[in-house]
Amino acid sequence: MEFALPDGSTLTLHPGATGADAAAAIGTGLARAALAIKVDGELRDLSRELPERNPNPAGRPKLEILTDRSGEEALSLIRHDCAHVLATAVTELYPGVKVSIGPPIESGFYYDFDFPQGTSLSEGDLPRIEEKMREHIGADEPFVREEVPAGEALERFLNAGQDYKVELIEDLVRNDGVRTVSLYTNDGFTDLCRGPHAPSTKRIKAFKLQSVAGAYWRGDSSKPMLTRVYGTAFFSSKELTEHLERLERARANDHRRLGQQLGLFTFSDVAPGSAFWLPAGTSVFNELIALSREMGRPRGYTEVKTPQLYDSALWKTSGHWDKYRENMFITESEGRAMAIKPMNCPGHCKLFSLQRHSYRDLPVRYSEPGLLHRNEPSGTLHGLLRVRHFVQDDAHIFCTEDQIQEEVAACLEFAFATYEVFGLDVRLELSTRPDQRIGSDELWDRTEQALANALESQGLPYEVSPGEGVFYGPKIDMHMTDSLGRSWQLGTVQLDYNMPTRFELTYTGADNAEHRPVMIHRALMGSYERFIGILLEHFAGELPFWLAPVQAIVLPIADRSRAQVAAAMLADRHLLGLHLVVADDQHVGDLPQLGIADLAPHGLGA
């Protein structure tokens, strides 16, 4: 068997060779460091035999050995291992516990447990579990994979009283026609798992259990509430310590805490996922909207205002009724099904259709700081970052095919100019067709190529994110890395042939015939709520001077005449163009508690 290595060389192995054999054939040092093997993109255990049949018709299968230097992929593998060791420790310490699932996630891993009645778990129990995990890691227990008939696995978990594993296997058989499943065992713990895993538990170098939370089985509120234990793992204690320090800084910078401390916004259970904006926060909000208007006007955007509530017919035309209805707030009026808008694009299409347009009118650029509502599950709501009620800096451009490249380029210029105001650097990502979509493959080919051409014509570097487009078209997403090293998606530019077709939009061409326009969806800040949340965390609450709701505190010193001057300054604050507050000497000490001292970049003596 022949395999292509990353350096371009060829590795020849005998039939039946395993991943471990491949690593050893390359070098003894690599064999000691190896965690797993990748064959033509498929990650596999080192103990498994390599496929003899070449799955790559273009040539020899590509082979790569994963080590602790292989980045996020290797880190995810070790975190998956750690989730299994967590379950091993919990089942040993808490007899009768039922295990469900334990995947690696972006920043670590978790495992969900169903404890016997009368038994509960708190964060105070985590050190005890960690100690038991260290015992299993120190024992260097191998992860042993076996593939067994689904019926046999079902019987084994049934006899062990592991109801959640039984349900998972039954679903695999019923929905996917699975006949065999893979199991992994370390010490006395066996789990249903696709794998892969590292050779043994000792490859886990540094880990930490972080928190305990509740989670419904399969995310369904009608099903049992399980106990979720979160943790993380790294290849060194230094990396783990740095990660935990970043988390501590993130907690200190949490926009929900800062928003309360600085008097910007608050929340109430009477309106889940909807912020109550206090005067200072409203000032920030309005400044961002004003910035969008100020920058959009010279770029040819015309602001419009469209309804909040639409007949279901509009959503059926747009395709949202079938694809997005579960995320919409729906009501009935006079026998008509109505929905509050979760996005502005169908309304803008309708507005475009209500007027006649010539090719001379194009491009038409509608902007709207539109109030939107989305019925997000309550468990996903998170301060300003995930809400049900929000305002989006939305725009939709209707243009000819010949204008696409120029308009997309203009959108990107607008985006870079906006982010420059805040000192934010962004990277670009081209998101292509998802599995669930509308429109033909030929249409998707054209739209994806049009966006790629717009990026490449400007020499802009970008990454491709397969399957991450929206159901009606591909998009260019803009991401920033904040001061804590976290990635956030900010703006998006989406190309859409589908919506103009569904709404039968037309313009009169130079040939006096009717033609179909192309639609570009454009949002740069996204929702203003989310953007404010990101800015607060990025700047640790110290917003740029021009955006600060209190730009200076006037401190009158001692005598009445100076206090009168301070009062006059406050009265003239609009003429000065500043957001000022006056603090007399009796209340200066209260400013830190009120958050006002933190809000104001400057103090002025009077």
Biggest pleated sheet:
8 strands, mixed
Amount of beta strand = 25-35%
Summing up helix and strand content along with how strands pair, one would put the structural category as alpha+beta
CATH class designation of the largest domain: Alpha Beta
Brief account:
The chain has 606 residues and is an alpha+beta fold. The chain has 20 helices and 31 strands. It has 4 domains: 2-66, Beta-grasp domain (Ubiquitin-like (UB roll)); 72-252, Threonyl-trna Synthetase, Chain A, domain 2 (Threonyl-tRNA Synthetase, Chain A, domain 2); 281-306 and 341-538, Bira Bifunctional Protein, Domain 2 (BirA Bifunctional Protein, domain 2), CATH 3.30.930.10; 550-605, Rossmann fold (3-Layer(aba) Sandwich).
Account of the protein in words:
This protein has 606 residues and is α+β, with helices and mostly antiparallel strands. It folds into four domains: 2-66, Roll (Ubiquitin-like (UB roll)); 72-252, Threonyl-trna Synthetase, Chain A, domain 2 (Threonyl-tRNA Synthetase, Chain A, domain 2, 2-Layer Sandwich); 281-306 and 341-538, BirA Bifunctional Protein, domain 2 (2-Layer Sandwich); 550-605, Rossmann fold, CATH 3.40.50. Helices cover 34% and strands 26% of the residues. The chain contains 20 helices and 31 strands. An eight-stranded mixed β-sheet has the order 16-20-21-28-25-24-22-23. Strands 6, 7, 8, 12 and 13 form a five-stranded antiparallel β-sheet that branches. Helix 5 (150-159) runs antiparallel to helix 6 (163-176), helix 8 packs across helix 16 (528-538) and helix 13 (404-421) packs across helix 14. The longest helix has 22 residues, at 72-93. The protein is globular. It starts with a strand and ends with a strand.
